[in-house]
Amino acid sequence: MTRTADPHRRAELLDQIVDYLAGHGLSTLSMRPLAQHLGKSTRVLTHHFADKEALLSATLERLDERQRAWLRSLPGWSGSDSVGTIIRCTWDWQTQEENLPVARLIHEIEGLSAAGKLGGHVPRLLADRSEFVAGLLRERGVPEADASRISTLANSAYTGLQLDFLISGDRERVEAALDQLCALVDNWVATA
């Protein structure tokens, strides 16, 4: 008789897989090395996930859930801090040394997705990122059309700045540009 997968155990396993991918990358994901790293058999993985595709889909969804929960926990997200302040807090957290592996993983996912190599596995974190930030803008009184435009531009600029930092390592130059982006976004919000 087949046992059903324990949802709590599955969630723990997904967190471990996200952490594994943050350290090892997504492009070389293989069930056997993953299982070995986790100290499990591949049978344990297939008990929780029908195949590699199901594992990948669930893992990207879990990464998305973790990122959104973290963003919503930022001081000021549902308070009175400016959007620019929230952008800066996000940057400060994501560029801490211990958080850079997840930032790199997200950029790897973006690259693989842009290359058409993830098929239907693009997590909401990427596909709906603009809408996620637009919601924050709307909560601060920005009209719908402006919220969508500002969110798209701010997300694209932020991603570009983060890639620049990860590639160049020039924190001072990139953060000066980030501060300019934060000021621009706050100005756009104020005038929208």
Write up what this structure looks like.
By secondary structure, the chain is mostly helical. 74% of the residues lie in helices and 0% in strands. It has 10 helices and no strands. Helix 1 packs across helix 4, helix 1 (7-24) packs across helix 6 and helix 9 (144-168) packs antiparallel against helix 10 (171-191). The protein is elongated. The relative contact order is 0.10. The mean pLDDT is 89.
In short:
The chain is mainly alpha-helical and 192 residues long. The protein is 74% helix and 0% strand.
The string of secondary-structure elements, in order, is HHHHHHHHHH
Strand content: under 5%
How many strand segments?
0
Helical proportion, percent range: over 70%
Shape label: elongated
Q: In whole angstroms, how far apart are the ends? A: 61 Å
Number of helices: 10
Please state the CA-atom Rg, rounded to the nearest Å.
Answer: 18 Å
Q: Which residue ranges are poorly predicted, with pLDDT under 50 across at least 5 consecutive positions?
A: none
Q: Report the structural category.
A: mainly alpha
